[in-house]
Amino acid sequence: MDWTSAQLRSLVELTRRGTVTAVAEALGYTPGGVSQQIAALEKATGMQLLRRVGRRVELTDAGTTLALHAERILTTEAEAVEALERTRNEISGTLRVGLFATAAAEILPPALRQVREKHPGVTVRSRDMDVDEVYDAVAGGTVDLALGLDYPDVPIPRDPSLRVRELSRERFSLAVPVGAMPGRRSISLADAGDQGWIMPSIRSYYGRAVLTACRRAGFEPQVLHEVTDTAATLALVEAGVGVSVVTDLMLRLRPSRLDVLALREAMERHIVVVFRSFAAQRPTLAAFVDILSASAGSGSSR
């Protein structure tokens, strides 16, 4: 049948995300663009793939069946790209990379400089996305690899089809308003139990990791401001309205006037790169992962 990879991917993402709007955000389309892809797929198959239920849409039996096969088709297509790359004598091609804000600002730029110097035939296309969505984006083939975060207290569920390679580890410190805790260079989380906190939603892995660490220290944080954006968090601490855990990488995102106290507890996050297991032998992807690992120091595979 005469269909395209983009049409099949739209259908697969709809089974993963449930709404046309969510698919549009994941793929970088407009909702209208996603609807057009599905409509074209229905024309190609001659079958109704979606039905409207109130304000929602759901897959028909034909849509569900095609989605299952579409995922296999897209995987086979990706494997073919990897196999063709192995036949080349040079590393070249296009990589689609997903990344979160901190990675976009601090990790990707130096890696891209090295790619240009070492492998001028490689084109990298990057997309900023919610850090908790990068694993699904890689599993669904929306991107070839992604930079993500993993927390020992709340580890990301491991998918056997994915490889997670650790690039670096960062310890958290506590950011407090200037002069809020004079004379102190370090602190236990429990000592900040009576402070107002600035932290992300506990629906996120990051938020759950912070909450777990606070509860282990014996207190329930009083969340005054629920904020995901790092720059906004630092601005709020600077304004004197609360405290927040931070890493060195986070602090570089926004020069801020605040005090940073070392945490006596070992609270950390791991910066990782995620890619599909079968793509590990794809020369272009392997070269880029090696560059990321080298620039981050010593990496490890898990």
Order of helices and strands: HHHEEHEHEHEEEEEHEHEHEEHE
Which CATH class of the largest domain applies here? Alpha Beta
Work out the count of structural domains: 3
Name the CATH superfamily classification of the largest domain. Answer: Periplasmic binding protein-like II
CATH fold topology of the largest domain: D-Maltodextrin-Binding Protein, domain 2
Helix content: 40-55%
Strand line-up across the major sheet: 4-3-5-13-6-14
CATH architectural name of the largest domain: 3-Layer(aba) Sandwich
State the distance separating the first and last CA atoms.
40 Å
Low-confidence stretches: 298-302
| Beta strands, count | 14
Sheet bearing the most strands, described? 6 strands, mixed
Secondary-structure-based class equals: alpha/beta
Number of helices: 10
Mean pLDDT: 88
Strand content: 15-25%
Structure characterization notes:
The structure is a single chain. β9 (196-199), α7 (205-216) and β10 form a beta-alpha-beta unit. The relative contact order is 0.15. This protein folds into three domains: 5-84, Winged helix-like DNA-binding domain superfamily/Winged helix DNA-binding domain (Arc Repressor Mutant, subunit A, Orthogonal Bundle); 88-169 and 270-301, 3-Layer(aba) Sandwich (D-Maltodextrin-Binding Protein, domain 2), CATH 3.40.190; 173-266, Periplasmic binding protein-like II (D-Maltodextrin-Binding Protein, domain 2, 3-Layer(aba) Sandwich), CATH 3.40.190. The protein is of the alpha/beta class and 302 residues long. Residues 298-302 have low confidence and may be disordered. It has a six-stranded mixed beta sheet. Strands 8-12-7-11 form a four-stranded mixed beta sheet. α1 (5-17) packs across α4. The chain has helices spanning 5-17, 20-27, 31-45, 61-86, 101-118, 134-139, 205-216, 230-238, 248-251, 283-296; strands at residues 50-53, 56-59, 93-99, 122-128, 145-150, 162-171, 173-176, 186-187, 196-199, 222-226, 244-246, 259-263, 268-276, 300-301. The longest helix is centred in the first third of the chain and has 26 residues, at 61-86.
